[in-house]
Amino acid sequence: MPSPVVRATLQSAFLCLCSALVATYLTPKNPPIVALVIVSTLITPPNFIWQQYLERKLPGQIIEKRASGGAKGEQRAGGDVTIKKRLNVPNTMMKVVIDQTLGSVVNVAFHLGGIAVMQGMPLGECLQVVKE
């Protein structure tokens, strides 16, 4: 069984390939399919690790243990202990804000630069594409 990072990378590459193939039929300009799949494959592992880091620092769930119970949404653990998970709203909101600001800047820069490199642009032009 492949690791979660490998599974996520394969899924990302497959979804990127599917969306690029659909885009070839929907737009008059054909996207660089191979370059898109390669960049997607390269960017997925760092993104996966980034999401794991955010989850470690800002857990998205609060786990409560109770001595007895049986209410909806609760799971039985060993003995009479019941575990209930609920959404940690402040942490989830902070993760969304951090990921959509810092994470998106890095992702867009890598994506634009990666596609430019795959299309054979010189490094100076690739940097200019990222700056724009």
**Order of SSEs, N→C?**
HHEEEHH
Strand content: 5-15%
Radius of gyration: 21 Å
User: Level of helix content?
Assistant: 55-70%
* SSE-based structural type: mainly alpha
Distance between the termini: 42 Å
Give the integer mean of the pLDDT values: 88
Number of strands: 3
Write down the overall geometry: elongated
Give a verbal description of the structure.
The structure is a single chain. It contains 4 helices and 3 strands. The protein has helices at 4-26, 33-57, 89-118, 123-131; strands at 61-66, 74-76, 82-87. It has a 3-stranded antiparallel β-sheet with strand order 1-3-2, with no helix packed on it. Helix 1 (4-26) packs across helix 2 and helix 2 runs antiparallel to helix 3. The longest helix is centred in the C-terminal third of the chain and has 30 residues, at 89-118. The radius of gyration is 21 Å and the shape is elongated. The relative contact order is 0.12.
